[in-house]
């Protein structure tokens, strides 16, 4: 296992279980305690871990993980989702990106197209698009919110109301087949709803851990979603069947690089 893969597993374990236990992590990953301590130092130097009450924890803002931590989690899955998401893009489109690490990954992979315009409330996504060579980038403005580094609030919503996109890529904290998509933050839910009302096509992009989760703030029901792109695993296949019954198209990407599986509901 490569060091960055092992460090990702350490981040996931600490995020799920709390402060890292060196001995337990060493046994879990089949390496020495010295190797785990070295990985923890690297993650702390990268500002992905921090000391809390004498214990090591992932960097958070309130109860949410920081953007840089979330960006490092499930990287293979996010890369596969991003590559599948690019299939709908055509020259001349206006592309909307809601703030999030999976949507950021799409921006990171966005190359080989021409004449695209972008609308986003994410400073990170805007900077990544610029880094990839794009120039037609519109930021909504608004109040800057960490940990997602999203622009939110009345000004952001006002701007988004006056902008139309051909396709919207939307990351979520959770997707429940009956209750729809949600996020822990009320202000982000509000700006997401505005983006949804002003696009032709809504594509939810999420790793499979988001299935079945209901967060504090409701964004939209499945009737407002055209396509869900996630990764293929047993949970995804189970939930995909239920989502299809509600008329949603589901794309199951393969992190290993094998062919994308697609389940069809209504046309996207």
From TrEMBL:
One of its GO terms (molecular function) is DNA binding. This is DeoR/GlpR transcriptional regulator. Gene3D superfamilies: 3.40.50.1360, Winged helix-like DNA-binding domain superfamily/Winged helix DNA-binding domain. PROSITE patterns: HTH_DEOR_1, HTH_DEOR_2. The keyword DNA-binding applies. Residues 3-58 form the HTH deoR-type domain. Keywords: DNA-binding, Transcription, Transcription regulation. InterPro entries: Carb_Metab_HTH_regulators, DeoR-like_C, DeoR_HTH, NagB/RpiA_transferase-like, Tscrpt_reg_HTH_DeoR_CS, WH-like_DNA-bd_sf, WH_DNA-bd_sf. Pfam families: DeoRC, HTH_DeoR.
